[in-house]
């Protein structure tokens, strides 16, 4: 799943490639992906793209148009298996709904454009056309962004204070923190030397210091690594930067122990027992405790 650093990389790329261009055509190939109907998607045709922004894991292309009141935004969330495929010269092949991974195609005035694609059978990519980004329910519910200049160590402490839930879940909850998902929560907790099953309410002030530093450093470095890369290179850049996530069975780069996994219904977490749990191995079930 694309998370904050990759989404920011896509936003930076789109800002540089699309600002000032007009949208000449929007083709919806997966109608279930389009979550809004007013404004209609055709309101984007003829609109000029004026800005690109990120809200958590949502990408926002702002436009201006003289064809109607308001300034429609094209907003999309790539979910677990979605991606953006960019073309300097957009293909002219006909898109056949249901016969392609393409959910949406956007054509631009200089001949370029992009597809939003989604692999697999579980479709959760979401596209919105709205006059105000806050009209998107997922954006309206977002917590603060960890890389916002106003997000401090005390902000983090206030968010986790009294929460009797595992810190891994807190980091992934978009209503608490915007933009962090499964992969980067693994990386943050590894850098903080913290068990994913630690209760948020049990963290000491020193734990919070360590978690804040790990979050800031991990996300800042990942955003920097994604900066300037075209969409086709962002996924590989993400994989290369991972210390533990997606590296089950490999060697922890910090201590040399083996990286372990805990599997859930639709995903997994990765961690190092030596670095994070005092050498104790986490039981491989959703509500497990540390093995005795």
From TrEMBL:
Domain Formamidopyrimidine-DNA glycosylase catalytic, residue spans? 2-125
PROSITE patterns reported for this sequence: FPG_CAT (PS51068), ZF_FPG_2 (PS51066)
- Tell me if Protein biosynthesis is a UniProt keyword of this record: no
Query: What keywords are annotated for this sequence in UniProt?
Result: DNA damage, DNA repair, DNA-binding, Glycosidase, Hydrolase, Lyase, Metal-binding, Multifunctional enzyme, Zinc, Zinc-finger
Q: Which reaction does it catalyse?
A: Hydrolysis of DNA containing ring-opened 7-methylguanine residues, releasing 2,6-diamino-4-hydroxy-5-(N-methyl)formamidopyrimidine
Q: Name a Pfam family for this protein.
A: H2TH
InterPro entries (UniProt xref): FPG_cat, FPG_N, H2TH_FPG, Ribosomal_uS13-like_H2TH, Znf_DNA_glyclase/AP_lyase, Znf_FPG/IleRS
User: What are the FPG-type domain coordinates in residue numbering?
Assistant: 243-277
Q: Which cofactor is recorded for it?
A: Zn(2+)
Q: Which family does it belong to?
A: Belongs to the FPG family.
- Report the protein name in the record: Fpg/Nei family DNA glycosylase
**What is the species of this protein?**
Microbacterium lacus
């Amino acid at each position: 799943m694309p998370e904050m650093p990759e989404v920011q990389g896509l936003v930076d790329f789109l800002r540089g490639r699309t600002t000032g261009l007009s949208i000449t055509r929007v083709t919806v190939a997966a109608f279930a992906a389009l979550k809004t109907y007013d404004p209609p998607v055709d309101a984007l045709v003829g609109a000029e793209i004026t800005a690109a922004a990120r809200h958590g894991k949502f990408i926002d292309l702002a436009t201006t148009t003289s064809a109607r009141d308001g300034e429609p935004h094209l907003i999309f969330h790539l979910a677990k298996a979605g991606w953006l495929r960019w073309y300097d010269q957009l293909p002219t092949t006909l898109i056949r709904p249901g016969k392609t991974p393409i959910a949406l195609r956007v054509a631009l005035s200089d001949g370029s454009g992009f597809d939003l694609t989604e692999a697999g059978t579980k479709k959760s990519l979401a596209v919105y056309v709205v006059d105000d980004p806050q009209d998107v329910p997922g954006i309206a519910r977002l917590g603060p962004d960890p890389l916002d200049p106003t997000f401090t160590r005390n902000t983090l402490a206030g968010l986790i204070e009294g929460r009797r839930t595992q810190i891994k879940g807190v980091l992934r909850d978009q209503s608490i923190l915007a933009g962090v998902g499964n992969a980067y929560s693994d990386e943050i907790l590894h850098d903080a030397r913290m068990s994913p099953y630690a209760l948020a309410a049990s963290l000491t002030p020193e734990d919070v210091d360590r978690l804040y530093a790990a979050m800031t450093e991990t996300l800042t470095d990942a955003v920097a690594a994604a900066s300037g890369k075209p969409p086709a290179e962002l996924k590989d850049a993400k994989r290369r930067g991972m210390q533990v996530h997606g590296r089950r069975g490999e060697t922890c780069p910090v201590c040399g122990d083996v990286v372990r996994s805990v599997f859930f219904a639709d995903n997994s977490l990765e961690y190092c027992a030596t670095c994070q749990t005092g050498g104790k191995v986490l039981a491989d079930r959703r509500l497990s405790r540390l093995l005795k």
